[in-house]
């Protein structure tokens, strides 16, 4: 009984630390998965509108690292370093940004991407989990994490339709 109470508390605690976004993409799941996991594709669509990318490393395996620099339309560079923590092809990918393992308190956030086949389309859902509600709110207010995430999903959708 105590475990059930703790689980319910953990779920409630997570809701103020997370951002969830999703989009139905008009492409088969395998194609969307490839766009997310292959360096030759992800560099073309990752990030909000107006951003470009320089890929430094993409070692797509659990424990592998993904390093890239997003170049903003404002001329600033935004380096990013993530470590893959779970991969279930073609359903699910998890990575920790700014940290090295799931639950790392030093991480900026943990990202969970799911790819659900819906007929010939793919529903992509992103769940970002921040270490604190304050970190989540700062990402929303200062860097526009929700708007940027939705723009990233739109860019992914636009990219896979062209390929």
Automatic annotation (TrEMBL):
Chain segments annotated as coiled-coil in the UniProt record: none
SUPFAM superfamilies noted in UniProt: Bet v1-like
Domain Activator of Hsp90 ATPase homologue 1/2-like C-terminal positions: 26-160
Family: Belongs to the AHA1 family.
Protein name in the entry: Activator of Hsp90 ATPase homologue 1/2-like C-terminal domain-containing protein
Organism, scientific name: Collimonas arenae
């Amino acid at each position: 009984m105590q475990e059930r109470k703790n689980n319910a508390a953990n779920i409630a605690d997570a809701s103020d630390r997370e951002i969830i976004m999703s989009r139905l993409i008009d492409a088969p799941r395998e194609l969307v998965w490839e766009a997310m996991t292959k360096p030759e594709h992800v560099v073309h669509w990752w990030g909000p509108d107006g951003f470009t990318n320089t890929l430094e490393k993409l070692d797509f395996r659990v424990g592998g690292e993904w390093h890239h620099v997003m170049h903003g339309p404002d001329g600033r560079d935004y380096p990013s370093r993530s470590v893959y923590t779970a991969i279930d092809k073609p359903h699910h990918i998890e990575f920790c940004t700014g940290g090295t393992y799931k639950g790392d308190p030093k991480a900026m956030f943990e990202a969970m991407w799911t790819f659900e086949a819906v007929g010939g389309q793919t529903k992509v859902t992103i769940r970002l989990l921040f270490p604190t509600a304050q970190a989540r709110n700062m990402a929303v207010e200062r860097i526009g994490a929700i708007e940027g995430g939705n723009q990233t999903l739109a860019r992914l959708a636009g990219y896979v339709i062209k390929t």
